[in-house]
Amino acid sequence: MEKTQRNNIMLAFITLAGAVAIVSIIGFFTLGKGTEIIQGEAEATEYRVSSKVPGRVLKFFVHEGDKVKAGDTLAILEAPDVMAKLSQAQAAEQMAQAMNEKAIRGTRSEQLQAAFEMWQKAKAGLEIAEKSYNRINRLYEEGVMTAQKRDEAKAQYDAMKATERAANAQYTMAKNGAQREDKAMAAAQVERAKGAVAEVSSYISETYLTASADGEVSEIFPKVGELVGTGAPIMNIAQLDDIWVTFNVREDFLKDFNVGNEIKAYIPALERDATFRITYMKDLGTYAAWKATKTTGQFDLKTFEVKAKPVETVENLRPGMSAIIEK
């Protein structure tokens, strides 16, 4: 009885050891040599649509998912502050234009006539003063008039000559109009005012948001009626004709990845294989995931970012879809 019990225990132990050995062998040949999966994700170029001026969203002309062409109007912003500045700039331009026209046209005819009359008056006064001086000077030479009277007449004559010259200069200046420098300054003021109007007008054009390239509206951030600041993103446009797949590849698999090489990957969402050409490779740095192998006497394995573009257009391939490579 005791011998039979020992035989049963020994048989059970041998059976257990055999089962462990069989499982170990199966695991070695199956799990140890299992297929390695490298998974990537499709990405596409995106650009953000934003405005140079703050404003309130007045209207959207597109929705998320809509296809757009370059130049299409996407949205309109309302910017009353900019419109007020435009009115100010236009008023300043009109004032500068009026000043310039005045400088070009010269003195008004009424002012020119008044200057001429003042000159004629000064000429008449000069003639009288000259005659009076000559008469008094002759009487002085004859001994009839005192020297003081002659000196007073001479002073009056000299003063009238100065007055006549001044009146003539005023008339000449009125006839010639504004100086060349004044005209140039007035013209420069006009150009400056035009520049201010053009600047504000460019800001107004920025309230009409347009697509800079073909694509698909992937995201719209604000709602109608919301305020947006300068440079705030309004929406994202994805350029689906510029799409690629990014893989994170451990360096022990890099021997099959070189820039310019073609690779095949399975796209689960489309249930098809596609061929891609590698265009970019770069290590992800120390912040990337490493595979620690030093405990087995080997070395740590770094991860590299690999980008690949489809060799031919893959219909319906969209950002976010997975691409699978089996190694």
Tell me the layout of helices and strands.
Blueprint: H1 2-30, E1 37-50, E2 55-60, E3 67-68, E4 73-78, H2 80-105, H3 109-141, H4 147-176, H5 180-205, E5 208-210, E6 215-220, E7 227-228, E8 233-250, E9 262-267, E10 272-283, E11 303-310, E12 322-326
Antiparallel strand pairs: 1-8, 1-12, 2-4, 2-7, 3-6, 4-5, 6-8, 8-11, 9-10, 10-11
Task: Please describe what this structure looks like.
The structure is a single chain. The chain has 327 residues and is of the alpha+beta class. It has helices at residues 2-30, 80-105, 109-141, 147-176, 180-205, and strands at residues 37-50, 55-60, 67-68, 73-78, 208-210, 215-220, 227-228, 233-250, 262-267, 272-283, 303-310, 322-326. A hairpin with a 4-residue loop joins strand 9 and strand 10 (272-283). The chain starts with a helix and ends with a strand. 15% of the residues are buried. Pfam families: HH_YBHG. Residues 82-202 form the YbhG-like alpha-helical hairpin domain. The chain crosses the membrane at residues 9-31. This is Efflux RND transporter periplasmic adaptor subunit.
